[in-house]
Write a structure and sequence with these properties.
275 residues; alpha+beta; 2 domains; four-stranded antiparallel beta sheet; three-stranded antiparallel beta sheet; 7 helices; flat
Length: 275
């Protein structure tokens, strides 16, 4: 029975990211335990645990990456969406990526992967969702804006408190950052303009005019990570360039937005007789 893209990605995270992360932390923990048992060699034990953890974590990923890919390619219907979202999630990499050269694959698995490449000649198939209206307007999230204003007020108040205690540098930092959060939160809260408009005609954002679906390519929602922080973006290409919208402060999550994109593109293609 076919599995959804979301289910395949969840299994991929469990099989690759979580499992390799567990291996890494087990060896780090083991290094610290041994450092306490053998204090004379504590530095060697800790460094050794970290190095072994990294190497075995990488080895595990190299051995398992294509096994998950084969399973996913065999069980997911919309293989194009799967591959793109897996690349966005760092479960796969672009075909010409250096990381693909590290993957260890048996001859039998190489043959299975080669045979599965034919599936990319088929288009992904989506169905209409009758619960989706003829047009969707997406605004700034009121709760998120209110939280930013509240956080800004707290930081601004704490900055004033530090200023009265002559801690000028941290007071200035907190005051400025708090004022920025308060201003940006208030600006979003009072903004009544839709940030994204979706319908069967195309896509429009607060910064771009309506673009027809037949002119739009590579529309997707993905997470961009930087260190410990991550931001969810909605992006698409059109003849005039590329639009990229941070949806973190908008009143919609990634998965519902993906569903809307599939539905409205499908309706557009049906209307043009493409389906």
């Amino acid at each position: 029975m076919p599995v959804t893209v979301n289910e395949a990605l969840k299994k991929g995270n469990a099989m690759l990211n979580y499992a390799s992360g567990a291996i890494f932390f087990v060896f780090i923990g083991g290094g610290f335990v041994l450092s306490n048992l053998y204090p004379k060699f504590s530095a060697v034990m800790i460094v050794g645990g970290i190095v072994l953890g990294i190497l075995l974590c990488l080895l595990y990923w190299c051995l398992q990456a294509n096994k998950w890919k084969i399973w996913a390619y065999e069980n997911v219907d919309n293989i194009h969406e799967l591959k793109q979202r897996a690349i966005d999630s760092k479960l796969m990499y672009d075909d010409d990526s250096f990381w693909n050269k590290l993957i260890i694959t048996s001859a039998a698995d190489k043959q299975r992967l080669a045979a599965l490449q034919d599936r990319f000649n088929q288009k992904d198939v989506y169905t209409d969702d009758v619960t989706v209206p003829t047009e969707t307007l997406i605004y700034f999230s009121k709760p998120a804006s209110m939280f930013n204003m509240f956080l800004g007020l707290v930081m601004l108040g704490f900055g004033i408190y530090l200023y009265t205690n002559h801690s000028l540098v941290p007071a200035g930092f907190l005051g400025l950052f708090g004022a920025f959060l308060l201003y940006s939160g208030f600006k979003e809260y009072t903004n009544t303009k839709p940030q994204i408009i979706l319908n069967a005609n195309g896509i429009q954002t607060a910064k771009t005019e309506l673009q027809d679906w037949k002119e739009i390519t590579d529309e997707r929602v993905y997470v961009e990570s930087s260190g410990k922080s991550s931001t969810t973006y909605f992006t698409y290409d059109y003849p005039g360039g590329t639009e990229k919208v941070n949806i973190g402060d908008l009143a919609i999550d990634a998965e519902p937005l993906r569903n809307l994109l599939h539905v409205y593109r499908l309706r557009s293609e049906k209307r043009r007789g493409g389906i």
